[in-house]
Fold this sequence. Notes:
Layout: E1 11-14, E2 17-22, E3 27-33, E4 37-44, E5 47-55, E6 61-70, E7 74-82, E8 88-96, E9 102-105, E10 108-110, E11 116-122, E12 127-134, E13 138-147, H1 151-161, H2 167-182, H3 192-205, E14 210-211, E15 218-220, E16 226-228, E17 258-259, E18 261-262, H4 263-266, H5 270-277, H6 279-296, E19 302-304, E20 307-308, H7 317-326, H8 334-345, H9 352-358, H10 369-401, H11 406-425, E21 433-434, E22 439-440, E23 443-444, E24 447-448, E25 456-457, H12 466-469, H13 477-483, H14 487-499, E26 505-506, E27 515-516, E28 519-520, H15 532-535, H16 539-544, H17 585-595
Amino acid sequence: MDQHRSFHVNENAEPGYYSVQLDDDGILAEMTATSRVGLHRYRFPESSEAQILLDLKWRDKVLDSDIKVIGQKRLEGTRRSSSWAKEQAVYFVAEFSKPFDLAFFNGTTKDFNLKEQTLSGGNLSQKVSFRFTTSASEQILLKVAISFVSIEGARKNLAAELPGWDFDKVRGDAKAAWNKELSKIEVSGGNDAQTTNFYTALYHTMIQPNVFNDGDGGYRGLDGKVHSLRSGGVEEGRSRGGRKNPQSAIRDPQSEQYTVFSLWDTFRAAHPLYTIIDQRRTVDFINTFIRQYEQGGRLPVWELWGEETDTMIGYHAVSVIADAMAKGIKGFDYEKAYAAAKHSAELDHFGLAAYKKRGYISMEDENESVSRTLEYAYDDWCIAQMAGILAAKGEDEIKRTGFVTSWNEKSIFRYKQDTAKFEQRARYFENLFDTKTGFFRPKKNGGFVEPFAPNEVTFGFTEGNSWQYSFFVPHDVARLEELMGGREKFVAKLDELFSTDQKLAGREQADLTGLIGQYAHGNEPSHHIAYLYNYAHQPWKTQKYHPADNGRILQANAGRPDRQRRLRPNVSVVHIVCVRVLSGCSGRWRLRVRYAAFPGDDLSA
């Protein structure tokens, strides 16, 4: 397909289905899927050289790959690659509905009359083209099952999820599954374009995180070993070297292991939304976090394909857990989740050692020092809430049962101590606030870095500058108002953010788009800011940025803010929101501002 021209006018995409007409050769390609198996359907014209290409080279750096051809209808293989995650491995089993005539491996013809042979490329990328003889409008189907554990796992997934060849049934099942998810929120009123925009945004919220385990419960942990969600599961205790692994106590045959946690993006709006419309998956996400803590030594920062990428900053899994605890969501071990959160906050990497010792991160300690300090402070506030919840839970249990022991008294006392400790850490943001300029600023060697310009993008900030990050204190807006000199001055600073004619300066940062003054609608750190007017009792100023042209929403990019978009519909309170298209967060931002109202932190019941 990479050699064919296709035009968007010939494409049809909907949840669970995609098709494209390749006019150059009269080929119709269609795709649908189950949870772990993709199903392709190709309609060819009459030809003696109809071909389907398997391209293991596409996308990222291939470390290793192999393809085993079994007869003339089935193949199995492995692809190891390096990109965002340094070691990505996927195992696959593919089966054609019709035998192929010949195959071309990296340009060389192969005779597949043999029962079986393996094509190994080592570090070389591989392409295999399978040739068929077709009659007019003949259909050839292709099933491809994947596993992140093993070839055997892929075989089992194929047998369990797609034993037959009924493309229309699989497409119908996929559509029904998506309709079930999308019907969790029903909207009325408005026009067709607005309805499409809304459900496109909702669809984006459900693309990731992804199921990571096989149908039999096997999954690859952050320790590189294979674990199982099921006690006694077929994959349980197996490592790459065949050694027995310690197993997580967090096992549930009804749950799933998930992957792709871009938590810097998603803690702001996506996960709070899930606590409302998808509590079952919220529980699975948190149990996944706990397993990752057990197997990787800490909560995830930005996990991808069973690897910690350490992309972005903070330890924002604690925000997700604290939100669920505050809302009383059951199904995970609160004490173990808290232990994981506390442990992650007590490590000494990424500036945390200096943060704990000094009360802020200095530029000589770590890059992005201001952003790290502010986001660590927010996370620490979340941990304080978790400790408070556990202390209150212990006290309630004593009142309910009248059963008092030295153990539970000590436990409650410890949680109360932790509450006070992390509440103190949650105020460390104050140590980087400059009362003279009214901005958060980087420090170095004990003093503020000079020269300073709030519009300058420097290595003191994460994808932003001081204008954007000077409003990131979501857990204590009242204190931020005080630091800025009171409510009137706080509102004046907000007004200036949106009206300033200052331009971005300093280093290039592609993420800073959609500028209204220095408010950057194209990136996460800005999205909550307009709603801070509500805390200052001036909600009409939030509404001011909802223009009469309905935000210039472009149908071609429905559901995703970009540089051409401005703020959208009214809500009367603030919430932390996001825009990362990679994980569907832009849709989540749109849903959060349209769907409901929440306070500035993520811990609203």
